[in-house]
């Protein structure tokens, strides 16, 4: 089945019936946008996936509870403070953010989802956050997606947003998304946050299934530094404004929408990996001909997460031994004596043994902004792709003083 989509602008406000805003409330820095608000003009279906870290931020706990209802109308987000490890006060603060959002939007409090990102273990400056939420509500607009994407950034160097449209049963359906993430990126669900909107009509159970599928093939296939955050979450709201027949079971429209959602998540996941703290290169690792999808995913993710591989990529060192080593400890099943490895178009190993290759050409390839590695396990017919980045001294500099 052909998968086609049309590029759109506007991020989370590209779909019909969604408004957004991003304002500066001084949560951590003066004059920097740090409160984001997304609002659906009509009730929406909702789905989410969350960090599997045993330690979870208060907003994660509150939102996990509310998402089980399968509906929501607003998402309020602050950057600069994670609201994690703040005890019962953290829960009260997360609920207070939802209460204020509900008040200024005149909607039920249970229809508000909450997210936070930033420093762990710091009290929330509610005297600045609550007025910031009211200010964001006043700024809500159909052109506010870019400001919202900026407001959720922490150490990100640029906002991350995308949007596309597809046709479902003769109706144009749009999906938009924004994400933040630069460090503490090794999702396992899925600090990393992502918020997606769509005007598709789809049941909450189907939306949850689609999101899980999309996240497993995108955000759960990236790694910057091997740290799984306490606040990771991906949320999606679907308000049905497109007018397509509601998707309630697997059919052609179900698969079209799921694939488009996966594409949006993949674009944002790549953007997160590319913007890793201190990174100079995007690393893409594709594992092919694995015995199972699980084996392909395990091997690909292990290679992008390897600090030795990441350091070699930064140093433009074609050290393919680190690649096969990472695949070997990944838990994937394969015969090491059959593995072929390519750096870009350059084959550096065949059947697990080194090949003569042009070191200068390989180093030149590794100097690019995007580095592609192909690992052929020659064990089956499954494949998977993972994304990461190089490891630089700047990563240490950023994280040596992140709290202060």
Describe the structure.
α1 (58-67) crosses α2 and α5 packs across α6. The protein is built from 11 helices and 15 strands. With 404 residues, the protein is α+β, with helices and mostly antiparallel strands. The strands form 2 sheets. Strands 1, 2, 3, 4, 5, 6, 7, 8 and 9 form a 9-stranded mixed sheet that branches. The chain has a 6-stranded mixed sheet with strand order 13-12-11-14-10-15.
Keywords:
single chain, 404 residues, globular, Arginine biosynthesis bifunctional protein ArgJ, EC 2.3.1.1, 28% strand, six-stranded mixed sheet, nine-stranded mixed sheet, 33% helix, alpha+beta
Per-chain topology:
Layout (H helix, E strand, L loop, with lengths): L5 E2 L10 E7 L8 E18 L7 H10 L3 E11 L5 H19 L6 E8 L6 H14 L5 H7 L8 E9 L2 E10 L12 E6 L5 H13 L16 E6 L13 H23 L7 E9 L2 H13 L1 H8 L6 H9 L10 E4 L2 E5 L2 E2 L4 H8 L3 E7 L5 E8 L3 H8 L4
Parallel strand pairs: 4-5, 8-9, 10-14
Antiparallel strand pairs: 1-6, 2-3, 3-4, 3-9, 6-7, 7-8, 10-15, 11-12, 11-14, 12-13
Helix pairs in contact: 1-2, 2-3, 5-6, 7-9
Subunit structure: Heterotetramer of two alpha and two beta chains.
EC number: 2.3.1.35, 2.3.1.1
Catalytic activity: L-glutamate + acetyl-CoA = N-acetyl-L-glutamate + CoA + H(+); N(2)-acetyl-L-ornithine + L-glutamate = N-acetyl-L-glutamate + L-ornithine
- What composes the largest sheet? 9 strands, mixed
State the helix count. 11
The coarse overall form would be globular
Question: What fraction strand?
Answer: 25-35%
